[in-house]
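sanity check this record:

:::
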Amino acid sequence: MSTSVIAALQIGASPAGTRATLDTILGYETAIRDSGASLVVLPEAVLGGYPKGEIFGTRLGYRLPEGRDAYARYAAQAIDVPGPETDELAALSQRTGASFVVGVIERGGSTLYCTALFFDPRDGLVAKHRKLMPTGTERLIWGQGDGSTLPVVDTAAGRAGAAICWENHMPLLRCAMYAKGVQIWCAPTVDERDVWQSSMRHIAHEGRCFVVSACQVQPSPRALGIDVPG
């Protein structure tokens, strides 16, 4: 029986921006190559950032000017797909011999999408998945994906697909992925709660697949002054 090494690179987006985060990812090249990993999964929105705690000046019925400025700064950190950042990630995939699933904030016209990108060491950027339904106030800043970006791609470790954060809780999405023969379920997320582990175990059991989840390293909501239960 052959074995495969699959890695979860759990890092956070740099406060210094997308370029700094990309440099951090590239800095793991030797570790990835030495590990022999055939697939590496990175967190949700690691390139572009997940602005936990930011409200962008919004109140029901109006927006503050400073919120517009904050959103403009956030949007400036998004990436084009394809673009210079995806070229660098494709080159990293080629040099390490590993496939990658990377969570990014994608700029599509005037809309931002929370997206998972798939990289192959031979073919570069091969697919993308846009988050179908942003969760809660994520809908203030991200557009909705659709069923046209639900890829399951071949990797050296097996057939891999991705569901981002809380869309893992969508039964019909899961069924669509199972029908495509997913063997390695990749779950980029920012959900660090213990209950998330239960969701991942359930998907592994339900889908008869291996599950790898990578979570951003971020301050807790309480560290940001946000009072949340649980």
